[in-house]
Amino acid sequence: MQEPRRSRRKRRKTLQIGSHVIEHWQIIAVVLAVYDFVAVCLGYFLALYLRYDATYTSIAQPFIKAYARFIFPWALNSIVIFLFFKMYNSMWRFASYTELVRTFMGSMVSSLLHALLITVIFIRMPISYYIWGAFFQFILLCIPRFGFRLIKLLQYNREPMKEGGKRVMIIGAGDAGQTILREIMTARELPDKVVCIIDDNPNKWNRYMEGVPIVGGRDDILAAAAKYEVDEIILAIPSASVQTKRDILAICSETNCKLKQLPGIYQLVTGEVSVSSIREVSVEDLLGRDPIRTDLQEVFEFISGKTVLVTGGGGSIGSELCRQIAAHRPKCLIIFDVYENSAYSIQLELKEKYPELRLEVLIGSVRDSRRMFQVFEEYRPEVVYHAAAHKHVPLMEDSPCESIKNNAIGTYKTAYAAMTHGCRRFVLISTDKAVNPTNIMGASKRLCEMIIQAFDAKIKAGKAEEIPQLFTHEGLENADRDGSGEIWKNIRTEFVAVRFGNVLGSNGSVIPVFKKQIERGGPVTVTHPDIIRYFMTIPEAVSLVMLAGTYARGGEIFVLDMGSPVKIDSLARNLIRMSGFKPDIDIKIEYTGLRPGEKLYEEKLMEEEGLKKTDNDLIHIGNPVPFDEEVFLSRMGDLMGAAYANREDIRDLVRELVPTYVPFEK
Hints:
Rossmann fold; 9-stranded mixed beta sheet; 7-stranded mixed beta sheet
């Protein structure tokens, strides 16, 4: 049961007098104002007292009379001046440059008016009275305001490590580093202690920031971590380039320390730099490339005002597609998924974030042609992103017919329903595993690509009616129900595929598996020391998928530039280091051997395919590999029958349709 909000809030310090509640800070402000009254009086008295050699009886009577008649009313007026400069509104335990400037300006204005008015109204005082009086007043005003911070700083540097605390190294002696340092020093709930700072600027070396030594540059990280017995390293250089971060984090990963960093420079602009902004260093930080940034204006123009259907909309790729589509003001967004839990989750998220969005969440299977016809008949989507698929390679090797049913036949039925119900563009989410596939999942996705290419070729030739309709329950979903053939006269759907590699954080991704294995204390299992993969984040991949969809003219296979491939073994070792352990010492790495259907490396294109450029350097078009569409389409019915019959020879049938498919030999 959730606690009542009152009990979960930190109790405020207040004082109640009758029906009036006085806040703790207001009490402090009143006490400070009384002190300031005394400080103004005392500061100028000291100036006059010292002018006459610290002998009260030596002070000239006109001066002491003028002082006595003027100082008390003026001290009250000074409080008003200090209020104007907001000298009673600050949190003095966090006092910094801003508070110092306010105190200086308030004291300066008070001193100038003091000098003017006492001279005009009473008498011209000694020059030293004006100068030393202003000085003493400023010093006395600063003592209570900054004394607390000074005491806390001295205590921080002298007090022993608190129980459960970590010894912290901060990399970056700039504004972000100073902010993090101050918050760690002043936060009572944090037992951690900053013991040293690293910065690449030699001018800062051997100096101190808030009493903590700046011990050197990045080359000194390893030595400093050992010397100061560092437990945790915080990278606080939000403006650094990805390459610089990667180089620094690579050095840090050689220590036994846990790594954290600030997400980005925007925290400095918005004032969000704090301990809560620090996040764990992610594997993306060590991939060694800048995030892919795309101009989605074309996507906005393409999506805005249209009805969009996302199949598999609850999955990792599908849900991100839904998020980005929802942000581009569609007329209606339809989420279609067979798994209700994931569909419900993205539904709640989008309803909260986009309350004005017309959102339809439908449950069903792309295998069910009657259900697909029903959805297209009712909602008439103009754009379809087909992300529904079985993607797990080892599981599909054990259930090959399910891969064909869901991936190939499901794509065929969804594409056919889209074609016959006025859909303008159908975008298939494909994979690099479709290139020269060695597993049934990759082969099924290659079948999907061939399906959309065959459909597009028939439509462009004006022969859409020749595409066989596949269904297991004839009748209700028959496209040409009245037999007039009118439905074939306005077919204009453009079919395209977008092919990319692995996405970090997706369902079935290797990264969550590694993290769970590390949490259990190992071992971390890698199939082969030389296995490599292309990686991209989910938002990056989806942005490029949507952008590629706007370039479509029909029949293309768009290939996304995934950058350089990454060794899975290196990812595993870096993840172990970032978790504060040593690979092969604290956490063992075991090589289990390639799984059925798994390749050492993935290819983005088949050898027969070439690349054509698009307006975006990260998106290319593969020239279609020719195949006999007539024969291919005529045999899809037989393939469907074999899949639904769960035939053992399904791989042989697939190989006849996909010549590049070479099944993995166990």
